[in-house]
Design goal:
This protein is of the alpha/beta class. 31% of the residues lie in helices and 10% in strands.
Length: 308
């Protein structure tokens, strides 16, 4: 049975509260949510990605993705969700690139600039699609670490010359408001929050120098960690399963800005450190590192900033 509008707003409110954004949006404001007339159009593209961010978005629990995509925004095209394929999809994208203005362009994945043919859509490289579509958009969203900070497509040894969305538009001289939402995969609550901020207030949330919302990325994992007292007392875990700070096991919490210690993945079911695993820095500029995983006695993964 379809939920009533009020039930839908209540569930949406739970997402906002869970994302720690309740002080930005009141319940009353959400009750006056946008109607079908002013829902912003969203065009979602995949660069070099694993589709993990789309999958995470589809797994949002409090509000069904269908409700988000039909009540909050008007989804024009998504490579996985849209029925349009082949020539029909190309017609939609060509129309957006030539006729439409002001839509929200969400990019998941990197943009391979050195090797453009590493990512093709309808026999045209992603570089061409983004170069045509970004100037027509009113707002850009770099969804997930690959689009926001480089991530896996730019790890050492890859040859594709992958750029983030922000790097690419600067490279092409395109000036557009942009929000970067790193996390591998992106937290769907961060995207919902960003979209609602734009819809309700007509502007982006406050951002840092890397275009990340300060709301989520102001503090490091380390600053809010449950093991911060252990860190101060130099009480370190030596093996997975031990109590204590995970620094000696390669934890990247001190150099990773994210809200995981306040709100974890899968509707705060858990997060890496609470589950006993070091933060691997999935939302960090340094991700992925050559030595990602800890091994007992292997010091290569330990942050060189610390003497442990
Ligand atoms: S190093 Fe990691 S486990 Fe230790 S306090 Fe910092 S974030 Fe927590
Ligand atoms: S704790 Fe670290 S690795 Fe885990 S989700 Fe958060 S930023 Fe990513």
């Amino acid at each position: 049975m379809n939920p009533s509008r009020r039930e839908f707003i209540q569930r949406l409110w739970q997402v906002i509260v869970a994302a720690g954004a309740s002080s930005f949006f009141s319940f009353e404001e959400l009750l006056a949510a946008p109607t079908a007339v002013n829902r912003p159009r969203v065009l979602w593209l995949h660069g070099t990605s694993c589709s993990g961010c789309s999958t995470a978005f589809l797994d949002i629990e409090q509000v069904s993705v269908v409700e988000i995509l039909t009540e909050i925004v008007d989804l024009v095209f998504h490579p996985d969700l849209s029925l349009a394929t082949g020539e029909q999809a190309v017609r939609i994208l060509d129309r957006m690139a030539s006729e439409e203005q002001g839509f929200i362009l969400v990019l998941e994945g990197g943009i391979p600039v050195t090797l453009p043919h590493a990512c093709m859509m309808a026999e045209r490289p992603m570089t061409e699609w983004v170069e045509r579509l970004a100037p027509r958009a009113g707002m850009l969203v770099a969804a997930g670490t690959c689009a926001a900070l480089g991530g896996i497509p730019r790890m050492n040894g890859t040859l594709a010359g992958s750029m983030t969305l922000l790097e690419f538009i600067r490279h092409k001289g395109i000036e557009k408001p942009l929000v970067a939402l790193p996390n591998c995969p992106m937290k769907p609550e961060h995207l919902v929050y960003t979209l609602l901020h734009q819809i309700k207030l007509g502007r982006l949330p406050e951002l840092d120098a890397l275009a990340r919302p300060l709301r989520f990325f102001k503090h490091t994992i380390h600053e809010r960690c449950i093991y911060y007292a252990d860190f101060q007392e130099r009480h370190y875990a030596e093996r997975i399963g031990d109590e204590g700070c995970l620094l000696k096991l390669g934890c990247q919490g001190p150099v990773t800005r994210n809200d995981c210690m306040r709100f974890g993945h899968n509707h705060n079911t858990n997060t890496c450190i609470r589950a006993g695993h070091p933060c691997v820095g999935c939302a960090s500029e340094r991700f992925p590192r050559q030595i990602m995983l800890h091994a007992h006695g292997d010091r290569r993964a330990i942050l060189h900033e610390f003497e442990v």
